[in-house]
Amino acid sequence: NAGVTQTPKFQVLKTGQSMTLQCAQDMNHNSMYWYRQDPGMGLRLIYYSASEGTTDKGEVPNGYNVSRLNKREFSLRLESAAPSQTSVYFCASSEPGQGSSTGELFFGEGSRLTVL
Amino acid sequence: RKEVEQDPGPFNVPEGATVAFNCTYSNSASQSFFWYRQDCRKEPKLLMSVYSSGNEDGRFTAQLNRASQYISLLIRDSKLSDSATYLCVVHGGTSYDKVIFGPGTSLSVIP
Prior knowledge:
The structure holds two protein chains of two kinds. The mean pLDDT of chain A is 92. In chain A, a hairpin with a 6-residue loop joins strand 5 and strand 6. Chain A is built from no helices and eleven strands. The N and C termini of chain A lie far apart (36 Å). Chain B is built from no helices and eleven strands. In chain B, the strands form two sheets. In chain B, strands 2, 4, 5, 9, 10 and 11 form a six-stranded mixed beta sheet that branches. In chain B, strands 1-3-8-7-6 form a five-stranded antiparallel beta sheet, with no helix packed on it.
């Protein structure tokens, strides 16, 4: 099993360009997430999808859109990239555990995005 | 105040040493607690969950103090392979957006 697969792994954009980060998981998980990681900030949630057909904003959604294409795939789109979006982006998936637990988060290898 | 705070580090320790990491959280309604490990330029991976009674996994021991809103991770007999960043993760409630990651503490184990 591949787990969580993200593409591309590296991307350089110019300010104003658009791009889509792709994410797919083969663990049949219901929940999927997009995080960004910046030095000293920890991982911050951009958007999440609790189940197929639903998406919700996280802590830092501005400048991003998402699509939960099906149970396997959850894409993140930057419509007009800005230098402040230079970051490492991680996709993750999980299967809710007992009670309110989200269950263990399984991450992709990350996508390193630079916006010039 | 950040929702989850950790010792900034870095911690540089010799092989065989015992090292402890601290984490505090601000939301008293938090329900679940975890330690994740992140190797340089890699994705985070679950190290262990943290239970109220404390739990141990080999050389790793995690403790939770709900009254003080404090979590700890103790690593005994440090190995070179323990070098990584350790992330404290707190689940604040029933909503998925309430999984909060601390900024991480960097550990380097030196030969």
